Amino acid sequence: MASESSTNNSITSTHTLPNNSDEEVKVMVPPLNFAMVAPGVYRSGHPNRKNFPFLKKLKLKSIMCLSSDEFNEELSQFVKDQNIQIFHYKIDGNKEPFIEIEQKEISNALVKVLDIRNHPVLIHCNKGKHRIGCLVGCLRKLQKWSLTSIFHEYRRFAVTKVLADQEFIEIFSEHVPYNPDFKPDWL
């Protein structure tokens, strides 16, 4: 059985490997709901201090936040220390019946995601479910995915509260004026 050793200020765990090995392994902790969207594009919930060693390994150029919340000091310091560019879109989630994500905001965010000069990029909202699910769903529409496949991927992360977001994705028709000279190969 692996044994864990840690200190009060530790942000990673060390484990001794089984079979009487003295070799230790640092455990990397990805952010909540972390996944690769496409080469150079990752999604997650809001990163915290214990995720920073993992994020360093990604060698991020950009972090995009879709949240009306302000960045916390730890994350602000991390992006400054790592020379990571921030794109912050103050977007509230879809809440029926009167609050809807603005298509223009998603279009503006997609322009940044579709520019390889910003890759690798981590896109996140608070939990990595709904707002990011809408952004990724709209990206999938640009990739010509079927709505069935888009909604299946969306539900894998969101689980609940899917109707308003799925409607948003389905009716998304905003022009996304990305620069074709810097578009990723997967588009």
Q: Topology, pairings included?
A:
Elements: E1 4-5, E2 13-16, E3 24-27, E4 35-38, E5 41-44, H1 52-58, E6 62-66, H2 73-81, E7 85-89, H3 103-113, E8 121-124, H4 130-142, H5 147-158, H6 163-171
Question: Would you write up a description of this structure?
Answer:
- The protein is an alpha/beta fold and about 190 residues long.
- The protein has two domains: about 1-25, no CATH class; about 30-175, Protein tyrosine phosphatase superfamily (Protein-Tyrosine Phosphatase, Chain A, Alpha-Beta Complex), CATH 3.90.190.10.
- Helices cover about 35% and strands about 15% of the residues.
- The protein contains six helices and eight strands, in the order βββββαβαβαβααα.
- The chain has helices spanning about 50-60, 75-80, 105-115, 130-140, 145-160, 165-170; strands at about 5, 15, 25, 35-40, 40-45, 60-65, 85-90, 120-125.
- Strands 4-5-8-6-7 form a five-stranded mixed β-sheet, covered by helices on one side. A three-stranded antiparallel β-sheet has the order 1-2-3, with no helix packed on it.
- A hairpin with a 7-residue loop joins strand 1 (about 5) and strand 2.
- Helix 4 packs antiparallel against helix 5 (about 145-160) and helix 4 packs parallel to helix 6 (about 165-170).
- The longest helix is centred in the C-terminal third of the chain and has 13 residues, at about 130-140.
- It is globular.
